[in-house]
Amino acid sequence: MPSIVKPAIAHPSLARNEIGLTVRDYEGAMSTLCAGCGHDSITAAIVRALFELSLPPHQIAKLSGIGCSSKTPTYFVNGAHGFNSAHGRMPPIATGASAANRALTYIGISGDGDSLSIGMGHLCHAMRRNLKMLYVIENNGVYGLTKGQFSASSDVGSKSKKGEANTMSPIDPVLLGLSIGATFVARAFSGDKEQLVPILKAALSHRGFALVDVISPCVTFNDHVGSTKSYKSTRERLMAATESDFVPHASEILADIAPVGVTNVMMHDGSVLRFTRLPKDYDVTDREKAFAYLKAHPNEVVTGVLFTDESVIDMHEANHTPDVPLVSLPYEVLCPGSAQLAELMEEFR
User: Fold this and answer.
1) Residue 62: band (very low, low, confident or very high) from pLDDT cuts 50, 70, 90
2) Which pLDDT value is given to residue 342?
3) What does the alpha-carbon distance between residue 67 and residue 70 come to, in Å, rounded to a whole number?
């Protein structure tokens, strides 16, 4: 049992979303991660994104594998469905769950060790299938749960807490996703909530697999001088590729964005967005240009929504499954009987 338990009563002045819930309704248990862990900042951003999207907690399914990152689902949305799988096996569990019940919102939380080592094959096939889910990699470049070994995302030359330098080339999940056809690819920094929340909202609204790689420094084993994924190193190398915001579907807002400077545009709720033009050669819908842009900035942590494509069919469309979740179909429809089976078998004779 945790030594500290959050009070169940919420302050009456807390704002409520479209379904009448407060932000407290999207919280979970108290975190047992190290104080200052970037993963807890990601949790806070997920809570805010779910609250602002007014997603019903009982329609959310949160999944994880093994590692410090995989404790995160415990810390948001107590009222959601949850499954903690074996090391690296979260993507196939999510695939099976989605196949049975497509009505749920699936959120997978993983780490660089969980996703880029033992689980990389499963991650790649989830992206190929365009499984509709938010997949967050809490990327700290280290195996924190097992006391500080280098992970597959550790940069060449990055030093461990003991002082040795990594000599193996890293696996970049963003370049991996772009290269094998992921339909939504983004990168963020756990210490930049203003950018991370709208990225998560956009990812949750995407009609396919949304990969969000979040650089999340490990304060215990990877926040020292010489580490390339420390808070200091990450802040020094941050570069926003896009201005990140999320606008839900509504009547169209038209505006001319000035070629230089900032253009203010009024939104439906009365808020004002400040727009600046991106580099002319950057197109968030062009996979090859996104890949080239990242390769052209190897020494920077490029953040923002880097690529998105809403035209690719998702797993259910590819397999022609019904709009009604399989879990809701009656037995007679799911199992049509021996006569139908015999007819099917005749096709293989």
Assistant:
1) very high
2) 92
3) 5
DSSP state of 99: H
At 258 the pLDDT is: 65
* Structural contact between residues 306 and 203, judged by C-beta atoms closer than 8 angstroms: no
If you ran DSSP here, which 8-state letter would residue 194 be given? H
Residue 188 sits at φ, ψ, to 5 deg, of -145, 175
Angle between helices 120-129 and 173-180 (to 10 degrees): 40
pLDDT digits (tens, 9 = 90+) for 297-332: 887 888 889 999 999 999 999 999 999 999 999 988
Q: How far is CA 168 from the centre of its chain?
A: 26
- DSSP line for 23-36: GGGGB-SPP-SPTT
Q: Does domain 23-242+279-319 have CATH number 3.40.50.970?
A: yes
Query: How far is it between the farthest Cα atoms of the chain?
Result: 70
> Which residues lie closer than 8 Å to 299 by C-beta, 6 or more apart?
237
Domain locations in the chain as residue ranges? 23-242+279-319, 251-277
